[in-house]
Amino acid sequence: MMEPWEENESPVKKFMFVNRKAPYGTVYALESLEVVLISAAFDQDVSLVFVDDGVYQLKKNQSTDGIGMKNFSPTYNALGDYDINKIYIEAESMKERGLTLEDLQELTYEDEDDDWAEKSSINVVSRAELAELMDAQDVVISS
Amino acid sequence: MAMLHIVNKSPFDRSTLDSCLQSSKDGAAVLLIEDAVVAAVNGTSVSAKIADALSSKSVYVLGPDLNARGFQDADMIDGIKSVDYAGFVDLVAENSNVQSWL
């Protein structure tokens, strides 16, 4: 007989976290990152989107010494270790802001199906492609 | 004496910078702080607007906020001046009045 907690094992759902705000001016970016890291503990299918001002969250060379706030941008490097390796950056948002992938930090993961080869987690997508990705989710959390 | 206009919202997210530029007089000073500092960066879809404003107004950026977001003075549109917190205080003292565009 199955124990109660073994019954109705919930299926894996597709969760998408949509980041739309620049860091530091509001607390949304930091809070979202914390929620994403917590979500990794639940073994769900998690993806992360950076769109609109959210692309600024991944800007290289952030230096917060002058504003007395914690620079949390290095924490994005931990996403790969939490098996969060589907990261989508919207191309139009980068272009409007004069940014290219060169301006953003690299995010990688080790692929266990490929002898732990280090691979990029970042996928640049168009607005139209992003609409398709969002449409395929079970849960979308935007901030 | 001129008025100091302070803008703190990203021009890609809110229209406060537009409102400020349209409702400020020639000779005014505009200070970009917090998320508004990205408006000072060269090569964006709002750069032309700022470059245009520079012909009749002084535009300043709070340097520590710019650096926090990963940009340096060299990334800015020519003609924008970077100030530190002491420079922020000087601007408030030098101008006859201050308007914060929240």
Describe it:
- The complex is a heterodimer of chains A (143) and B (102).
- Chain A has a single domain, classed as 3-Layer(aba) Sandwich (Hypothetical Protein Ychn, Chain: A), CATH 3.40.1260.10.
- Chain A has 143 residues and is α/β, with parallel strands linked by helices.
- Chain A contains three helices and seven strands.
- Chain A has helices spanning 28-39, 91-96, 127-135; strands at 14-19, 45-50, 87-90, 108-111, 117-120, 122-125, 139-142.
- A five-stranded parallel sheet of chain A has the order 6-3-2-1-7.
- Chain A is globular and about 60 Å long.
- By secondary structure, chain B is α/β, with parallel strands linked by helices.
- Chain B has a five-stranded parallel sheet.
- The longest helix of chain B has 10 residues, at 85-94.
- Chain B has helices at 16-22, 47-53, 63-68, 85-94, and strands at 3-7, 29-32, 58-62, 81-83, 97-101.
- Chain B has one domain (3-101): Hypothetical Protein Ychn, Chain: A, CATH 3.40.1260.
- Chain B has four helices and five strands, in the order βαβαβαβαβ.
- The model of chain B has no long low-confidence stretch (mean pLDDT 97).
- The two termini of chain B are 23 Å apart.
Topology readout:
The complex is a heterodimer of chains A (143) and B (102).
Chain A: E1 14-19, H1 28-39, E2 45-50, E3 87-90, H2 91-96, E4 108-111, E5 117-120, E6 122-125, H3 127-135, E7 139-142
Parallel strand pairs in A: 1-2, 1-7, 2-3, 3-6
Antiparallel strand pairs in A: 4-5
Chain B: E1 3-7, H1 16-22, E2 29-32, H2 47-53, E3 58-62, H3 63-68, E4 81-83, H4 85-94, E5 97-101
Parallel strand pairs in B: 1-2, 1-5, 2-3, 3-4
